[in-house]
Recover the amino acids of this structure.
């Protein structure tokens, strides 16, 4: 099981923080933001499980950071868990008063981070194990982990599975993009991929290789942010 997270951090510690979190394979970075506005937009769009929020730095001041939490309350019914990052312990009391899950002092202590993430894993439930795909009155129940990629074809969607089977469903790719777990990324108007099967990305040719390079799909620059998120994960 994996959990998605967004890192909102403009400090000099951001790279170190990201590297520390990446040591825990259950947590997948889907976006890195350096401004409050960018952070809000990414959280609304990507709906991550966790937001790592750095406060009290040069661009994201303490008051500005906490106002971000208030704004997210306006737009989202279910807020992600917030883990606050700060250079000092001074704002810890206010942070917990605002309902954050954890407060970590930067640079992050490895044991403190491990305890924080283990506590999160213990208290949160697993993702749904299967997705229902309707095709001509025939219902297929498929584990998302067995889906390599999806291809749009007019108003239908083809599912390409690990076992070589192809299932056609009479709903749009956009419908399944909203339904599938966060580790499915749109890389093209016609393609939605499971990043667990990515084996190579060629930026020059704009190609994404899946399943040990057996499958080659093009990606468009429209989805550059998604490609960057994949690169962060696999590199």
């Amino acid at each position: 099981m994996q959990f998605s997270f967004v890192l909102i951090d403009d400090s000099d510690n951001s790279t170190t923080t990201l590297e520390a979190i990446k040591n825990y394979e259950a947590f997948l970075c889907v976006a890195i933001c350096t401004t409050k506005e960018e952070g809000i937009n990414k959280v609304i769009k990507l709906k991550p499980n966790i937001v790592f929020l750095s406060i009290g730095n040069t661009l994201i001041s303490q008051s500005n950071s906490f106002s971000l939490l208030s704004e997210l309350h306006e737009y989202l019914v279910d807020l992600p868990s917030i883990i606050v990052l700060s250079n000092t312990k001074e704002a810890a009391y206010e942070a917990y008063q605002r309902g954050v899950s954890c407060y970590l002092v930067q640079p992050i202590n490895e044991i403190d981070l491990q305890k924080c993430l283990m506590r999160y894993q213990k208290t949160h439930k697993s993702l749904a194990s299967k997705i229902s795909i309707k095709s001509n009155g025939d219902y297929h129940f498929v584990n998302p982990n067995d889906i390599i990629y999806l291809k749009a074809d007019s108003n239908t969607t083809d599912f390409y599975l690990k076992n070589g089977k192809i299932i056609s469903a009479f709903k749009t790719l956009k419908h399944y993009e909203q339904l599938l777990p966060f580790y499915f990324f749109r890389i093209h108007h016609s393609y939605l991929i499971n990043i667990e099967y990515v084996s190579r990305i060629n930026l020059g040719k704009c190609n994404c290789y899946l399943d040990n390079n057996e499958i080659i799909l093009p990606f468009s620059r429209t989805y550059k942010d998604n490609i960057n998120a994949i690169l962060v994960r696999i590199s």
The longest strand covers residues 27-33. The radius of gyration is 19 Å.
